[in-house]
Amino acid sequence: MLDANKCGNALIRTDLPLGQAHRGKVRDCYSLGDRMILVSTDRISAFDWVLPTPIPDKGRVLTSISEFWFRWLSSDSALALEHHLLSTDVESMGLPEGIDLAALQGRTMLVRRAEVIPFECVVRDRLAGSGLNEYLSSGTVCGIRLPSGLGPGSKLPEPIFTPATKAESGHDENVSFAVMADVIGTDLAERLREKSLAVYRRGAKHAAEVGIVVADTKFEWGLDSDGRLILVDEVLTPDSSRFWPAQNLELGKVPDSFDKQFVRDWLEKSGWDKQSPPPNLPADIVEGTRQKYFEACLRLTGKIPHGV
């Protein structure tokens, strides 16, 4: 059954009769042996906190966009991309009777189990966020020296690969490529860099064609039971990326975006100290965020999320 912990039409958490759930900031994950059920809830996080106010249908947007990218990217023979997605049809997942399948529809993925590599594979093509902060203080991003004279929102000479440690809670930490290579080995680190940059470039090209600039994004990769490198988790979503409207780009300015930067901006102005539990989001910020996510989904996939 689904937990009754809902907020209006938003789903905050699940408690399915599938054993102990592993809960991330957004997803509830259930193990089925060599497969897993991933349920994208409507939780939203910012500044290392899961906020008390969910964004209705956000989980369906994330699932719809990820499904689109998994299918679309893997159809490109030049990428030779493998991924973990098996199905998003809850009717075919063999779930126990009594589960409210309608509530899970559109926000659930059946995936291959993988040994997740313990680094976020971040690709940056514009200066924003922690990369901008580091550049302004040292002229580098994750130790990579960049040309002088760049400012907020500036396009980099070429996309760069900047890994980060994965954090279940708290903040991911940017690290150098050398640190990553020391932990997982140079060969695997180089494969991750090559694959991440290739997937980014292919995805960013499609996004540009529908008026979205992918300023940066993060991928997660894993090794399946046969040792093959596969793309896991989510792909090029508003949660894992900075999506900027192409028509709003201005030199020296980070534009409004189709992602949770809208929530971050409100929190920055709210007076919250980022140390105590965060405040509830006002209704207009919730609806504004929801609409931004929906617009990103419609532009990228050409349709609204299933189940909405």
Summary?
The chain is built from seven helices and 18 strands. Strands 10, 11, 14, 15, 16, 17 and 18 form a seven-stranded antiparallel sheet that branches. Strands 3-4-5-9-8 form a five-stranded antiparallel sheet. Strands 1-2 form a two-stranded antiparallel ribbon. Helix 1 (58-74) runs parallel beside helix 7 (283-301).
Layout of secondary structure:
Blueprint: E1 6-7, E2 10-11, E3 22-23, E4 27-32, E5 35-40, E6 45-46, E7 49-50, H1 58-74, E8 85-87, H2 101-104, E9 108-112, E10 115-116, E11 119-126, H3 129-138, E12 140-141, E13 144-145, E14 155-161, E15 164-165, H4 177-184, H5 186-209, E16 212-223, E17 229-232, E18 241-245, H6 261-269, H7 283-301
Antiparallel strand pairs: 1-2, 3-4, 4-5, 5-9, 6-7, 8-9, 10-16, 11-14, 11-15, 11-16, 12-13, 16-17, 16-18
Helix pairs in contact: 1-7, 4-5
Describe this structure in words.
The protein is globular. The protein is built from seven helices and 18 strands. It is α+β, with helices and mostly antiparallel strands and 308 residues long. Helix 1 (58-74) packs parallel to helix 7 and helix 4 packs across helix 5. Strands 10, 11, 14, 15, 16, 17 and 18 form a seven-stranded antiparallel sheet that branches. A five-stranded antiparallel sheet has the order 3-4-5-9-8. Strands 1-2 form a two-stranded antiparallel sheet. It folds into two domains: 6-113, Phosphorylase Kinase, domain 1; 116-257, 2-Layer Sandwich (D-amino Acid Aminotransferase, Chain A, domain 1), CATH 3.30.470. The protein has helices spanning 58-74, 101-104, 129-138, 177-184, 186-209, 261-269, 283-301, and strands at residues 6-7, 10-11, 22-23, 27-32, 35-40, 45-46, 49-50, 85-87, 108-112, 115-116, 119-126, 140-141, 144-145, 155-161, 164-165, 212-223, 229-232, 241-245.
